[in-house]
Amino acid sequence: xxxxxxxVGRVFLLKFENNDILIQSLSGLAKKERIKxxxxxxxxxxxxxxxxxxxxxxxxxxxxxxxxxxxxxxxxGLGTIFxxxxxxxxxxxxxxxxxxxxxxxxxxxxxxxxxxxxAVVLELKGVRASKEIDxxxxxxxLRII
Length: 145
Prior knowledge:
This protein is mainly beta. It has a single domain (8-54, 67-128), classed as CATH 3.30.1330.80. It contains 1 helix and 8 strands. Strands 1, 2, 3, 4, 5 and 6 form a 6-stranded antiparallel sheet that branches. It has a two-stranded antiparallel sheet with strand order 7-8. The two termini are 13 Å apart.
């Protein structure tokens, strides 16, 4: 295990509206406010999108199970933002439900908000970390500097 220490900086309260694209909107906030590192907590609903629900087999590099969801799902999740030379790198995991169905995984792509998502972004100050492509896994992983 590796670690670094820091402090909580600014706190942002966000209200995403119907059809906002979750990851794109978070990335826009990170660019506008020059957020280098943060954590995100949210509740609400997603209309449609892409979700990775683990690997097809537990091997490295992993091949992802990709799922498309539609029709409005209740959601709660958390994630991180780390900005590198390519811009903000957003990593979100969420659990979502609709009737008696449940999905849990990594929210990807152009997942759209249904009605509303309320979120809190806690900026992390003083941490020495970034996200970089790991050559072994091919994944964009946390790198503690």
